[in-house]
Amino acid sequence: MVRNPKGMRDILPPETFKWRRLEILLSKVALLYGYGEIRTPILEFGELFRKGLGDESDVALKEMYEFVDKNGDVLSLRPEGTAPVARAVIQHHLYDVPVLRLFYTGPMFRRERPQAGRYRQFHQFGIEAFGVSEPYMDVEVLLVVKRIFDLLGLPLTIHINSLGCDECRPPYIEQLRNFVVESIPDDEEIERFKKNPLKLFDSKRPEHAQVKSDAPKILEYLCPTCRDHYAEVIKAARTFAIPIVEDPHLARGFDYYTRTVFEGYVGELNLAVVGGGRYDHLVSFYGGPDIPGIGFAIGLERLITSMQEVPKVDPEPKVSYFLATTGQDMIEPAFWLAESLRDHNAEVIMDLRQGKLQKQLKLADKVDARYALILGEEEQKNHAVTLRDMVTGEQRVIAQEAVLGE
Ligand code: AMP
């Protein structure tokens, strides 16, 4: 009898109906924040993942489906989406748009031991934002996650941590390595932990629980810049009611992460449904320009199984705006306005590099925005906003309520 390979499922009607609706909902939310869709090949050169995720990551080490093609190329079924997107950004010079937002949906492959919620072919929806290192970019990304789970009516908790940067992480890793060597007896795992001491935090062995809680915490080792970044992300995330829990043990599996990392859980389920973080050096590591990035991926199987029905949404936003701000202090009110506009089915794109107005409007041109909204102190005082027609250059001040209604 013929049958499918282990860990690779057929998705059949009527379940496919749920999948279709879910994919529409996910891409709709991405569109509301100005993300454009990217589709990369399912096969990539294996090297892309081994280099990017780290030779010692479980995925690169044990779980990749790799084969030698007839011409000798080593190809790999993609185990995740960030590395291929970063590759495409470099290859096609997509970074000519200085703040670049991309999303993807599709199958990923990892040769894991199949069990509930763990497959060898599974599907991810993910977003990646390039070009902004400011904390509000992290917050926007978390808001995308929040909006998705709110729309799906799923109770979400996001564990969040910072992994520091190239300056403050290495001394921390050294401390952790020394601690691990002193605290854990020599057995087969110690070699693994010595190579990558952060693996300690993934250990499920009960005898490691105490060691984990006694281990040095990375937050205490962050350099001032990383510490400020983290503090701002946490503060703004709380302001916008993002359901975060600080988790000093959260390390994530791939080498490319820097600073903010997070994982989301639904209800009591103890498998993460979403994982993400910053990867500020991945693009330059692959030979591209030095541009920061941040993103996440949601596992669709784990979403689908946690819900009965997927709500139906309008597939496309009604209008699209570029929202610019004048002055640092305007970012928070601008975020509130942007979120309300998105609640009203409008796409809102922001620069978030917190540069001068002219620079932000240049980006508005690059992304072909039809209308720009400008929020300065004067406008905010009057609950107003300046609406600018990007084609004619005409502008007028209107009430924020009126934009929401339009
Ligand atoms: P990761 O790329 O490992 O951070 O995974 C991101 C998300 O993809 C996870 O939170 C899961 O929802 C999903 N995921 C990862 N691996 C699997 C798998 N083997 N089977 C099903 N879903 C997975």
CATH superfamily of the largest domain: Bira Bifunctional Protein, Domain 2
Q: Within the CATH hierarchy, at the fold level, what is the topology of the largest domain?
A: BirA Bifunctional Protein, domain 2
Small-molecule binders here are: adenosine monophosphate
What count of domains describes the coordinates? 3
Q: Looking at the structure, what is the overall shape?
A: globular
| Helicity level | 25-40%
- What structural category arises from helix and sheet content? alpha+beta
CATH architecture verdict of the largest domain: 2-Layer Sandwich
Mean pLDDT: 94
Please identify the top-level CATH class of the largest domain.
Alpha Beta
Which strands sit side by side, in order, in the main sheet? 1-5-6-11-10-9-7-8
Give the topology, please.
Blueprint: H1 15-32, E1 36-37, E2 43-45, H2 46-53, H3 58-63, E3 66-68, E4 74-77, H4 82-91, E5 100-109, E6 121-130, H5 135-152, E7 156-162, H6 169-183, H7 188-195, H8 209-214, H9 224-239, E8 244-246, E9 258-266, E10 274-278, H10 282-285, E11 293-299, H11 300-305, E12 319-325, H12 331-343, E13 346-350, H13 357-366, E14 371-375, H14 377-381, E15 384-389, E16 395-399, H15 400-405
Parallel strand pairs: 1-5, 7-8, 12-13, 12-14
Antiparallel strand pairs: 2-4, 3-4, 5-6, 6-11, 7-9, 9-10, 10-11, 14-15, 15-16
The chain binds adenosine monophosphate (AMP).
